[in-house]
Design brief:
Blueprint lengths: L1 H9 L3 H16 L4 H12 L4 H29 L1 H18 L8 H33 L2 H37 L7 H12 L2 H8 L11 H6 L4 H31 L5 H20 L1 H8 L1 H15 L1 H5 L3 H28 L6 H30 L1 H23 L4 H10 L3
Amino acid sequence: MVTAYVQKLRLFSRDVRLYLVTAALIGFTVYGGIYDVLLNLYLLRLGHGPESIGLVNAAAFLAMALFSLPAGLLGTRWGIRRTMIAGMSLMVAGYGLLPLAELLPVTWQQGWLPATRVLAGLGVALYLVNASPFLMGATDPEERDHAFSVQAALWPLAGFAGSLVGGLLPGLFARVSGIAVGQPAPYRYSLLTAALLLIPGVLALWATREVHIEQTRERAAKREAAPYGLIVLMVLVGVLRVAGEFGVRSFFNVYLDADLRVPTAQIGTLMAVGQLLSVPAALAMPMLTARWGQGRTIALGALGVALSLLPLALIPHLGAAALSFIAMVALASIVRPAFTVYSQELVTPTWRPVMSGATNLAAGLGAGAMMLAAGYVVTALGYRSFFTIPAGLIATGALLFWAYFRVPRGELARRSAVSTER
C-alpha cells in the first residue's frame, strides 16, 4: 500500500510540485502557521477586545466570500495561473500592511485593520478559487486524490513549523530590539516576516505553465442542465462546516491567552502539535475514500470533528483544550480535501471554476459570519459556551450531506463519468 502511494506521488508533474511549494508557504505563514498564532495576540496587545478581534478576522473571510464567484469568472477569462499569481501578490500586500496599524493613531486602526484584511481576502479568493481547477487540470484521475491529500497534508505540516516559529518569533524580536515581549512591536515584526515569506510563492507560481479548462464533450455540456441545485447544496454544507471549524480556530488562541493564561510560546507549540498530527490524517484520505467512499468519509469525518469539540466546550483545562484542537485539526484535514475533490468531480470541467467559486464563497461566508458574531457571543456567554455552537453547526452540515448523498442519484453516475473522461 505504501509503495503504491509513493508511486502515485512520482506521477506529479513539475507544475504540481511548484504549486505545492506555494501551498507549503501559505501553510507556514498565514493558514495555520505564524499568522494564525500571532494575529489575535497582536490585536490583544494593541488593546482590542473580542468584538474587534472578531470583526478584523471576519473581514478577510467575508471579502473572500464576496470575491469568490468573480474570481472563478476571472480565472476562466484571464487564465487560472495568472489569476493565482495576482492573488498571491495581493496576499503579500494585505498581510504585510496589516501590522503597520501599530504606527497609526488609534482611531485610524479601526479602519486600517479591516481594510488590509479585505485586501488579503481578495488575494485569497483569487488564489484559492483557481487552485482547485489548477490542480484538477494538472493531474490525471489516478493521481488526483493523492495530489489533493498531499496539498492538505502540506498545509498542516508547514503550519506545524510555522506555529513553532510563530511562538518563538516575538521573544526573539523582543530580545533583539530590547522591547518587552508584552508590547505590540515584537508581534508586528513577526507578522511582517510572515508576509515577506509569501514572496517565493509568487515566484513559484510564475514558473508554472497555464492550465486550460478542458472543454470535453462540448455539445453534451451545452445540453446539460446547469447544476445549480448541487452547487447550492454544497454551499450550504460548506457554510456550516467551515463556520464551525474556523469559529474554533479564530478564538482558540484567544481563549488560551485570556482565559487559561497560557504563555505565547506554549500556545504556538500546542497549535504546532495539532498541525503535525494532522499530516498523516490528510495523507490517509485516499486510502479512507478507497475503503469507505468519499461521501461516507466526508460525513463521518465531519461528525468526528463535531464530537471532538465537546471537551473544549465542557472542561476548562489546557489538556481538554489541546485534545479538542488536535482532534479537530486532524479530522478536518481528512474532510477538507475529500470535500474539494468530491465537489469538483460532481460537475463537468466547464462548471468546475463555478463550483470552486461557490464552495470558496461558502468558506468565506461561513467563517466570516461566525467570526463576526463570535466576538459578541464570547462577550455575552463566555468562551466555553461559545464552543458548543461550532460543534452543532458542523454536525448539522454532516447530517445534511449524508441525508442527500446516501441514496444513489443521477448526479453520482455523472460524477463517475466525469472523473474518468480524461
